[in-house]
């Protein structure tokens, strides 16, 4: 059973920012989209690019290596939902961002 883990202060991830954070040994891309937080597996399913270093526009993150785009709300690749990244639960407790990995992500 996975637990919520504190990864950053809310003030460290303002709207429009994506950070890469370590959650129990897994790199996660954490984004603030207009005040809503999203967390997905940092590893792009195309060739392993770091999504946390990608460009964020609205709820879409663009992989910096070859430009695949993913919707952070669903984890699905834009225009080809057969490719997905795992989405994590995110919550804020006392100004601290906490993430829980999905059970299948190890
Ligand atoms: S590794 Fe992400 S688009 Fe190629």
TrEMBL record:
Gene3D superfamilies: Rieske [2Fe-2S] iron-sulphur domain (2.102.10.10)
InterPro entries: Rieske_2Fe-2S, Rieske_2Fe-2S_sf
A GO molecular function held by the record: metal ion binding
Alphabetical UniProt keywords: 2Fe-2S, Iron, Iron-sulfur, Metal-binding
Designated name of the protein: Putative Rieske-type ferredoxin
Organism lineage string: Bacteria, Pseudomonadati, Nitrospirota, Nitrospiria, Nitrospirales
Organism of derivation: Nitrospira lenta
Cited SUPFAM superfamilies: ISP domain (SSF50022)
Top-level taxon of the source organism: Bacteria
Domain (Rieske) ranges: 5-99
Pfam families noted in UniProt: Rieske
């Amino acid at each position: 059973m996975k637990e919520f883990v504190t990864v950053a202060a809310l003030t460290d991830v303002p709207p429009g920012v994506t950070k890469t954070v370590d959650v129990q040994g897994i790199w996660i891309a954490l984004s603030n989209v207009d005040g809503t937080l999203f967390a997905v597996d940092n590893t792009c399913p195309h060739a392993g690019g770091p999504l946390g270093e990608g460009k964020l526009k609205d709820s879409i993150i663009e992989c910096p290596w070859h430009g695949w785009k993913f919707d952070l709300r669903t984890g699905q690749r834009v225009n080809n939902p057969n490719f997905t990244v795992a989405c994590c639960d995110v919550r804020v407790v006392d100004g601290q961002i906490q993430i829980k990995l999905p059970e299948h992500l190890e």
